[in-house]
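To whoever is on call:

I kicked off a structure prediction for a single chain this morning and the downstream step that reads the tokens threw a length-mismatch warning. I double-checked the sequence; it's 155 residues and nothing unusual in it as far as I can see. Pasting both halves so you can look.
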Amino acid sequence: EREKSAMKFYKYEPAVTGDYGDKTLYAGPERIDVVKMHYEFSIWPKDDLQWCGYDFIGTDRLKQALEALKPPITGITFGDTEISGDDGEFERVYRKGRPDSALGLWHWFKITGSPGVDDFGQNYHSIDLVVSDRVLELLEKFVPENSVRQITEWK
């Protein structure tokens, strides 16, 4: 197993193609801590990892690839999410970025780790997602050429 000190970390800002849906449930009135995730797509997603507020969702194929990493990834658990979108908009949108014609199965990517320590890290009430170099390498395999994500070295 690699030593944590040898790992590099990156701030990873995924694409945003939607927002919290009406069926999202929050723990309190400040609407920060989500207890039930509903993601409403407003445009057709190209990337397998999407961002919304303090939360992230990802495709089933990305989840499976992350779960296959050895040693096992740290700092993330997976939960159910409801997804929806404007079918009328999707009929008009150019879908070349994703070969499938349906949204498919998505999961809530719950970030539980600490930045600079775990493979996935996020400070409480921070929108910044920090990933290890091995996670970044895997994420790059799931991103189309014209992705709008932002990646910067994290220190």
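Update from on-call: the warning came from a stale cache, not from the record. Cleared it. Sanity check on the structure: The first strand starts at residue 9 and ends at 13.
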